[in-house]
Specification:
Elements lengths: L2 H21 L3 H19 L6 H18 L9 H17 L22 H14 L4 H12 L4 H8 L3 H22 L8
Length: about 190
């Protein structure tokens, strides 16, 4: 088992224990889980909407569900997959009827590491600009895979779609980015 696999398994074990405690209405366990997921969920949901009020609402709704349903978690998926799926559905519910909120956004400056070199910020801005041109389902699929490290199976569970749909979205998104990013960076794609 690789070090990363070991670390992920250990974290999932801790999170499962927190869920067991939350099922018994342990507020400290709830606060610990909330604290460990808040920034991840905020970043993830920012790919669905730029409205911070809707992101906050979706996070709070998600953790209300976690508080109510912690005892029903069966461990068939990782805790992170379960929570991300809840957050995804809560955010979609908040967005229903507000089609203007389903926009790609550039990351807020506070989401960047303060010590991040300028060229890394430029790369991130360039990538965010490319991602903002993708449909929301493709953008979220890439975010779940490359930023959060979820497998195609887990992404399918989170987004409630077949694994083949996840793979197709990833393929189409990468093709679009490959064709779009050189133009956004001021490079002639044919000269590559």
């Amino acid at each position: 088992m690789s070090e990363l696999s070991y670390q992920l398994a250990r974290n999932d074990g801790r999170e499962k224990e927190l869920l067991r405690k939350i099922a018994r209405h342990d507020r400290r366990a709830f606060e610990a889980l909330y604290g460990s997921y808040y920034h991840r969920l905020s970043r993830f949901l920012s790919r669905l909407t730029h409205r911070h009020d809707l992101i906050e609402e979706a996070i709070n709704d998600s953790f209300y569900v976690v508080w109510q349903k912690a005892g029903e978690f069966r461990g068939e998926a990782q805790v992170s997959t379960w929570i991300m799926g809840i957050a995804y559905r809560c955010c979609l519910k908040s967005l229903r009827g507000d089609i203007n909120s389903v926009l790609g956004v550039v990351l807020d400056e506070e989401m960047l590491a303060p010590e991040e070199p300028e060229f890394r910020r430029d790369e991130r801005d360039w990538l965010n600009q490319g991602l903002s041109h993708l449909p929301a389902d493709q953008r979220l699929t890439l975010e779940l895979a490359y930023y959060f490290g979820h497998s195609c199976e887990e992404i399918g569970q989170i987004m409630e779609c077949p694994v083949n749909t996840v793979k197709a979205r990833m393929f189409r998104a990468r093709v679009k980015l490959r064709n779009l990013l050189p133009a956004l960076g001021g490079v002639d794609a044919q000269g590559l």
